[in-house]
Design goal:
Mean pLDDT: 92
Order of helices and strands: HHEHHEHHEHEE
Structural class: alpha+beta
Number of strands: 5
Shape: globular
CATH superfamily: NADH Oxidase
Low-confidence stretches: none
CATH class: Alpha Beta
Number of helices: 7
CATH topology: NADH Oxidase
Strand content: 5-15%
């Protein structure tokens, strides 16, 4: 295994919004192969309760995009700190925030034009359950979705993990015919991406987010 190839894939799989090619369709075979790869991911108790709802119908995409925009407007107008963290000016994440907001706004305005929406779902409802049940159910779908995004990236297809439409999950379920017993976990806009190759993003140093044996303890020397 060439670790350089693996590391490059893992460190350059970005959330793609403004660089999605809105005019180029994504072949069904590409999506199906990426889902086949995704279903090799771990799943709790081998439950395999995952489902990938692929939405290409223009009217359904428009309906999902309308729900997403409603949620985005609520998110964008909320006071700082209520739906997103407040960051000090010298935090590197604060410097990146204007670019991210611009990108997210673009997606909200153009989501209906993205040729494919993928809604990963998982069997079961755990919103009223304890943290163990929630972790188990989401842990049985999130690895598969990340594998799906990596498989797309390897094929020149971009995506972005979004969850805002879940603010109106029941309305989305009516649009898509999702049973009441199934949880929608995300909405991924999917399209070929335009422009140059992606680069690793600026991130906080790993040592600031790594704890050894006890919270707040750094690696023993």
């Amino acid at each position: 295994m060439d670790l350089r190839v693996v590391d490059h894939l893992l460190t350059t799989t970005r959330s793609v919004r403004k660089r999605l090619d809105l005019a180029r369709p994504v072949e069904p075979a590409v999506l199906e192969r990426a889902i086949e790869i995704a279903l090799q991911a771990p799943t709790g108790s081998n439950s395999q309760g995952w489902h990938f709802l692929v939405v290409t119908d223009p009217e359904k995409r428009a309906a999902l995009a309308g729900l997403y925009r409603r949620a985005f407007e609520a998110y964008a107008s909320a006071p700082a700190g209520t739906m997103r963290p407040e960051l000090p000016p010298d935090d590197p994440r604060a410097r990146q925030l204007p670019r991210i907001i611009d990108s997210a706004t673009y997606l909200a305005e153009h989501l209906h034009e993205v040729p494919v929406h993928v809604v990963p779902c998982v069997e079961g409802r755990v919103e009223n359950a304890g943290t163990l049940a929630q972790a188990s159910v989401y842990g049985s779908i999130l690895p598969a979705v990340w594998s799906f995004m990596l498989a797309l990236r390897a094929r020149g297809v971009g995506s972005a993990w979004t969850t805002l439409h879940i603010m109106y999950e029941q309305e989305a379920a009516k649009v898509l015919g999702v049973p009441d017993s199934v949880t929608q976990t995300a909405l991924l806009p999917v399209a070929y991406y335009k422009g140059a190759e992606f680069k690793p993003a600026g991130r906080l140093p790993a040592r600031q987010r790594t704890h050894w044996n006890t919270w707040g303890k750094r690696r023993p020397t």
